[in-house]
């Protein structure tokens, strides 16, 4: 995220945006069950999302003594990598007490070290395909770790000074505050728990799990399928991009406004790694034939999505950081009463959220290699469309409040929100 104001992934995120107060009570039960349900479904022959009543995995399917060892080892590895003096150190935005926190920008190094370790394990003959069997136990452990970490965060927040608390997470309702998160930037020494969880163990874990699914395919069928290679490469590109631009996460709502509670912890550690990559798990049990022609189409779609996503995010970031930079200086803008200007040409003159459009095109490209026989591989693109449409509406309200008439003028000039001529 270096050349972005916001990253592509503030994964967790985003669950909060879909639900409010009453949800805070139900979600900590409902979402973990959804994760287990979806994984169980991806490996069942029918893989029918609409089956009723929905069946959950049995207790025994969730147990494997290797899972907690692997999961805790993985988290420990990334804590270690976080502390290595690699990459630069950046400052976050100014906090309410006037200070700024320092963050190591070395998530991409973490991804490279993880890749090197995977290659070493392969070379040593480690059965990486066993991750397929371990998926449910690993998810169960990630959910358990999410609960334990959230309880720890909730308790320790009572010792935090009031300026260190998030504005939205202190309603006095223990369940809601536990869910939304009380403390803004919980740290142990220099180790920032929220920043660490945002992009590292879960996001890198997601692509490692994908790779495990690919190796399972190799075990079963001798070589990885084209569909599996496409899904793995697309999602690796997305994760690598997020980590390459890691610095931009420092200006996201997750870091700047949201407390660190169950919603973010669970989103980062369980929801993203175990639901965003369902396509790869699905392909292990439901092999698909992708013709070269279809593969080229899907590649172009993902390439186009990535291009729009990256270019539009970078353009806005560049404009916000330095509006006189040659790459943005020639763009047409309108003035606002706040002193900030709004872009009305370039990507931000095409639709009002070109970055969401690019993200959604990529999400669709991740599902297409899985064919049209099942709804399950489309879970991510459906969930993500709902999420971004809701997020866009919320951002729109905030911009209208911030920029007033100038925002109306922008909407008049650029009438479509995300999809040109549609929405
Ligand atoms: P955006 O990058 O879309 O930023 C919205 C802000 O940009 C507005 O509040 C406004 O802030 C500024 N802005 C809006 N219009 C203009 C304009 N015309 N000119 C200049 N500035 C403008 O925020 P998000 O955090 O929602 O999205 C960032 C990325 O993260 C996206 O690519 C999105 O797809 C991705 N994402 C991914 C998720 C995932 O789970 N994979 C979840 C959520 C997001 P201001 O004027 O104050 O600068």
Automatic annotation (TrEMBL):
User: Where on the tree of life does the source sit, at the highest rank?
Assistant: Eukaryota
Which keywords does the record carry?
A: Cholesterol biosynthesis, Cholesterol metabolism, Endoplasmic reticulum, Lipid biosynthesis, Lipid metabolism, Membrane, Oxidoreductase, Steroid biosynthesis, Steroid metabolism, Sterol biosynthesis, Sterol metabolism, Transmembrane, Transmembrane helix
Q: In which pathway does it act?
A: Steroid biosynthesis; cholesterol biosynthesis
According to its UniProt record, where is this protein located?
A: Endomembrane system; Endoplasmic reticulum membrane; Microsome membrane
Gene3D superfamilies on file: 1.20.120.1630
Pfam family of the protein (one): ERG4_ERG24
Q: How does it sit in the membrane?
A: Multi-pass membrane protein
The record's Gene Ontology biological-process terms are: cholesterol biosynthetic process
Keyword Oxidoreductase part of the UniProt annotation: yes
- Name the Enzyme Commission number(s) assigned to this protein: 1.3.1.70
Q: Name one GO molecular function term.
A: Delta14-sterol reductase activity
Could you say which enzyme class this protein belongs to? oxidoreductase
Reaction catalyzed: 4,4-dimethyl-5alpha-cholesta-8,24-dien-3beta-ol + NADP(+) = 4,4-dimethyl-5alpha-cholesta-8,14,24-trien-3beta-ol + NADPH + H(+); 5alpha-cholest-8,14-dien-3beta-ol + NADPH + H(+) = 5alpha-cholest-8-en-3beta-ol + NADP(+); 4,4-dimethyl-8,14-cholestadien-3beta-ol + NADPH + H(+) = 4,4-dimethyl-5alpha-cholest-8-en-3beta-ol + NADP(+)
The membrane spanning regions, by residue number, are: 21-42, 62-82, 103-124, 130-155, 260-285, 292-309, 363-389
Q: What does this protein do?
A: Catalyzes the reduction of the C14-unsaturated bond of lanosterol, as part of the metabolic pathway leading to cholesterol biosynthesis.
What name is this protein filed under? Answer: Delta(14)-sterol reductase TM7SF2
- Recorded source organism is Oryzias sinensis
